[in-house]
Amino acid sequence: MFSKVQGKALYQTMSTACGAAFMLYGYDAGVLGGFQERQEFRDAIGNPQGPYIIPLIASIYNLAAGFMSLAVPFFGMQIGRKGTIQLGHLLVCIGALLQSSAYSLTQITVGRIVAGAGIGCIASAVPTYMAEMSLEASQRGPETQYQLALLISGIPLAYWIPLAMQSCFSIFSGGLLLFLPDTPRWYYARDRHEEGDKTLAHLHGKDVNDEAVQTMRRDILASLHEDDGEKSDFNIKMLFWDHSNLQIDRRLRTSFLILFAQQFVRINMLVYFATTSRQKNRLDSFAF
């Protein structure tokens, strides 16, 4: 199906699908903030008592996403980048169904866990998918910024749209991905060279034998060969002190510092507890 869409149009279609997936990420993060203090919502789930129950329901989504992100490397290569994203969409739809029909504390908690696991798949695979589909290194930074902007835009939407609507993002993004290829790098890594060649050609909008296509093909295969050599020497110590070309320790430290900076400015308070904060500060008229 994607053979009819090539070059820039193909890349923009992939960007749209991944953008919807990341908007879902932001939507799910803020979806409880819009109504977690409403009495109707509390009555529906059994009116739980105690100061930690509602925060636990909100935050367990992040825990599930975190654990799934750690699990993705163990199966992501087998099912592909696109397959991992599609698995995430399926889990989000199941989680949305459980949450929107919840009439007990247990059901909404399970729904948050399932949706969080789906977001873990999406958050892990979408950046990799877009990076490996980029023809130029200069495309990756702006594309990541675009995806993050859409992620943030999903948060305010969550304050006005019901729980079940999170499925719409998954259905839209997953529907587009059904007609899109996986990444050339994944095809080559799985020895599916013909499909990798075809995808590269479509991304360039040129013939398979074009010099630009063949040059990128050689670069990807050389990179895979180098990665295979580095993997054979991997050990746990490399997570903390790595002198190889992979520089695993530096990548991890950079990731942790970025995430620390996000939490340091109390972003979770804004996402999950904006309504509560306004009410506590006598701004009830502005509460959603």
UniProtKB/TrEMBL annotation:
This is Major facilitator superfamily (MFS) profile domain-containing protein. It comes from the Eukaryota. It is a multi-pass membrane protein. It holds the Pfam family Sugar_tr. Its main location: membrane. GO terms for molecular function: carbohydrate:proton symporter activity. Belongs to the major facilitator superfamily. Sugar transporter (TC 2.A.1.1) family. One of its GO terms (cellular component) is membrane. The lineage of its organism: Eukaryota, Fungi, Dikarya, Ascomycota, Pezizomycotina. The chain crosses the membrane at residues 9-27, 52-75, 87-105, 157-180. Keywords: Membrane, Transmembrane, Transmembrane helix, Transport.
